[in-house]
Design a protein that fits this description.
Arc Repressor Mutant, subunit A, 45% helix, alpha+beta, GAF-like_dom_sf, globular, Transcriptional regulator, five-stranded antiparallel sheet, GAF, 12% strand
C-alpha cells in the first residue's frame, strides 16, 4: 500500500508531478474542486487553508520578535532537545541545500538553521524565526500540516497552498510532551525536490522520536494526563501510553477528573444528560465500556478515578490563578470539548472561556491580545480588538490594522456610538465564533 504521507513514490518524475499538481492547485483556487493526483492529506489541507482565508500569495506573518522571541524560545520545552536536532539533522542544515526548522504548537518558527545562502533565499517568503507557519496563516506546508494532522508528512513543491512557497519541498514531524501527550511543536527539514524522498520523512520521524525519548528521560514519573481543550475526542496519557477517547468517554473522564471525590450515578447522569429521561443502564453501559479501556483507573460506588489525573483545563486554571497569562495562552488550544452538549461540560467550557477573556482584557498586553485575536475563537471578538487598539500607543503604526478590524466589526454588528479603541464602552459586544480546529 502506498504511504499517503509520502509526497512521491519511488521513480516518480518530479517535473511532471509539479506540473500536474500546479494545474490542480489553480483549479482549486478557481472553483474549489480538487481531484487526483492530489493526495487526500494535501486536499484536506487546501480546504482548511481556504476555510481559514490563508493567502495564496504573500508572506507568513511575524508573531514574535526581539526580546519577546528570545525569552519565549529560551523557556520552551523544545529548547532542551535542540542538541538532538542538531546532531541528527545538522549535516542537512549545513550542506547548502537544506534548512532545519523547529516550531511551537502554534506553528511559530523558533529556530531556523542552515547554510547562510539557503536561509537568505528562505527569508524572501518569511521562513524566519518568529514567523507563523501554521496552515491558518501560511497555508499548506510540512510543519503546519504536521501540526494540523498530528502526523509526520511531506509536502512537495506545488502541493504548498501559497504560490510563493512552491519552489520548496519539506518534511516535518510533530513532537509531544511525553508526560501529557500534548503537542509541543514540530521539527522540519526544508529544501528542494530531493526532500520528497522517503528517506527524509523517515529521518524527521526518527528525529522526533529521539527528541521525545530525550524529554521523557528527564521525567521521573509520567502519571495520568487528560487533554480536552480544542478537541472533541480527549487524549488520555497513562504512564506514557496514549489513548484517544470517544466523545462520551471524554466527557465522563473530564467530569470525574474535576470531581476527585467521586460522583454517584445520579450526579454523573445529570452532568452528562441534564434533565433528559435516561435509563440508568445507559450510563452503566458507557462506564463499563470505559473501564475496558482504562482498567483500574475507573472505580465505582461512587464513580471516581483511582489516581490523580492532570488536565489541561486545570493547567489553564492554575496559570490564570498565578497571573501567568503567557502559560495560560500557550496551554489553551481552544474551547473545552467544543461539540459536547453535556451540561456539566458546557458549564466548564463557558466558565473557562469567560475567565480567559476577562484575564486578557484586564492584562491589556498587546502581544497576548493580538495572539488571541488570531484564533478562530477570538478573531471576531470586538471587545478584544477594541482593547488591543486602546492598549497600543496612539501613534504606533501597529495600531492601524486592529483599528481597521474594529471598525469593520462594529459596522458588521450594526453598532454606533463610541469609536473603536474605546474599550469597555456600553455597546462593545463579544462575538466568539468557533470553527472546529483540526482533530489532533
Amino acid at each position: 500500500m502506498v504511504n499517503p504521507w509520502l509526497a512521491m513514490e519511488t521513480g516518480a518524475d518530479p517535473v511532471e508531478r509539479t506540473r500536474t499538481v500546479r494545474r490542480a492547485h489553480a483549479a482549486f483556487l478557481a472553483d474549489g474542486t480538487v481531484a487526483p493526483p492530489v493526495r487526500r492529506v494535501v486536499a484536506d489541507s487546501w480546504r482548511r487553508s481556504a476555510d481559514a482565508h490563508a493567502a495564496a500569495d504573500g508572506a507568513a506573518p511575524i508573531d514574535l520578535d526581539g526580546a519577546t522571541l528570545g525569552a519565549y524560545r529560551d523557556g520552551h520545552p523544545l529548547a532542551r532537545v535542540m542538541p538532538v536536532f542538531r546532531e541528527l539533522l545538522g549535516s542537512f542544515a549545513q550542506d547548502g541545500a537544506h534548512l532545519l526548522a523547529v516550531c511551537d504548537s502554534q506553528g511559530r518558527l523558533l529556530w531556523v538553521e542552515g547554510h547562510r545562502g539557503v536561509r537568505r533565499s528562505a527569508e524572501r517568503m518569511n521562513f524566519v524565526v518568529g514567523a507563523r507557519w501554521d496552515e491558518r496563516h501560511a497555508g499548506t506546508n510540512a510543519p503546519g500540516t504536521a501540526l494540523a494532522a498530528d502526523h509526520p508528512v511531506q509536502i512537495f513543491a506545488a502541493e504548498h497552498y501559497n504560490r510563493q512557497v512552491q519552489r520548496w519541498s519539506c518534511a516535518a514531524a510533530p513532537l509531544h510532551d511525553p508526560r501529557t501527550g500534548r503537542l509541543l511543536g514540530a521539527v522540519d527539514i526544508t529544501g528542494g525536490d530531493h526532500v520528497a524522498s522517503p528517506h527524509s520523512l523517515a529521518l524527521v520521524q526518527a528525529t522526533a522520536r529521539a527528541a521525545e525519548a530525550h524529554l521523557a528521560s528527564g521525567v521521573p514519573e509520567l502519571g495520568v494526563c487528560l487533554s480536552a481543550l480544542g478537541r472533541d475526542e480527549a487524549l488520555l496519557v497513562m504512564d506514557g501510553e496514549r489513548l484517544r477517547l470517544g466523545r462520551r468517554h471524554s466527557e465522563i473522564m473530564l467530569l470525574l477528573a474535576r470531581h476527585p471525590e467521586g460522583l454517584t450515578g445520579d450526579q454523573l447522569s445529570v452532568l452528562l444528560y441534564g434533565e433528559r429521561e435516561m435509563r440508568p443502564v445507559t450510563l452503566r453501559a458507557e462506564l463499563s465500556r470505559l473501564r475496558q479501556l482504562v482498567g483500574t483507573l475507573l472505580h465505582s460506588r461512587p464513580y471516581r478515578l483511582s489516581r490523580p489525573v492532570e488536565t489541561d483545563l486545570s493547567a489553564v486554571d492554575d496559570a490564570l490563578t498565578a497571573d501567568d497569562m503567557r502559560t495560560a495562552l500557550n496551554v489553551y488550544r481552544g474551547p473545552l470539548l467544543p461539540l459536547s452538549e453535556a451540561p456539566g461540560v458546557q458549564r466548564l467550557r463557558g466558565a473557562l472561556a469567560d475567565r480567559m477573556r476577562s484575564a486578557l482584557l484586564g492584562a491589556r498586553d498587546p502581544g497576548l491580545l493580538r495572539e488571541w485575536s488570531r484564533t478562530p475563537w477570538g478573531e471576531d471578538d470586538l471587545e478584544i480588538w477594541e482593547t488591543l487598539v486602546d492598549a497600543l500607543p496612539e501613534r504606533s503604526p501597529a495600531r492601524s490594522a486592529p483599528l481597521a478590524t474594529a471598525h469593520r466589526l462594529r459596522a458588521a454588528y450594526g453598532l454606533t456610538g463610541g469609536p473603536p479603541g474605546a474599550a469597555g464602552t456600553q455597546d462593545a459586544v463579544r462575538v466568539a465564533t468557533f470553527r472546529q480546529p483540526p482533530r489532533l
